[in-house]
Amino acid sequence: MANIHDIAKKAGVSVTTVSRVLNNHKYVSEEKRIAVQNVIDEFNYTPNRNAIDLIRGETRQIGVIIPYNNNQAFDQMLHGILNKSIEHEYSVIVLPTTYDAKKELEYLSMLQTKMLDAVIITSRSNNWEAITPFTKYGPIISCEYTDFSEIGCSYIDRYTSYVEAFYLLKERGHERVAFTTAREMESKSTIQTFTAYEEVFGKPSGDYVIFNCYSMQDGYRAAQKLLHIKEKPTAIYANGDEVAAGIYQYAISIGMHIPRDVALLGQENQPIGEALAISTVDHQLIQAGEQAFELAIKKSKDKIKIPYQIIHRSSI
């Protein structure tokens, strides 16, 4: 099987020239490029990509740590990352953790072994003290804010968005407001939701909080509980438009009217929310993913805040 030395000898050029042709280096004459490419075609030579990566000093591969897919928030961030990866001709390796802290650290070690140029963390299970040592091997970009100077981040001010969302419902005359969330109190976003609720309404009743909501089915389940308690809520803030759609579906099935009987506010501006005219808090997660990718390839440690917006529809 031919190697790079055989190609150089047959083409009458140096090994360095062959290497430059393989790496699309601009400082090669067209005559030599054609000569080398002809020999490559003649020998049916396939370059060793790992060897080329070593020569080039990069893999052009970005790792994306994601707890799980089929989740509207993480899928939107990943969508943004993929948009930019195509534009910049990078490959993206999706690294699912299901919030396994050990697995997360194993993925980060891929920076140390030069399998990845950078890692983007959409959501984490380890604390930053465990993560930051890996920054000496390559850029780590977070999709949440962190004070650690070693970490660049593309983030949304979620807490402020939650406060604004709850105030919106309060201004519309609602005092009995329930909400759904994903993970329980180990999640930063869940803690922020609770804190924002307390700022606007005071401590929430246990009956008004439904955990482990990720899908339309979860929203349906949440509505079965929330809409049959004695002091049922007059408004519900769902942690996703799919969850909100499940609540909507159940409410309609028992003869309730949206928003007369119960107002509904979702998150992330999903197509199903638009179809059902559900108001939503759009955290612009596609843009957050795009910005995270840009920070990764630029090896930047900047902190970029992505603006959110509340989209008003008929459900409130």
Automatic annotation (TrEMBL):
SMART domains: HTH_LACI (SM00354). Keywords: DNA-binding, Transcription, Transcription regulation. Residues 2-56 form the HTH lacI-type domain. It holds the Pfam family LacI. One of its GO terms (molecular function) is DNA-binding transcription factor activity. InterPro entries: HTH_LacI, Lambda_DNA-bd_dom_sf, Peripla_BP/Lac1_sug-bd_dom, Peripla_BP_I. This is LacI family transcriptional regulator. It comes from Virgibacillus oceani.
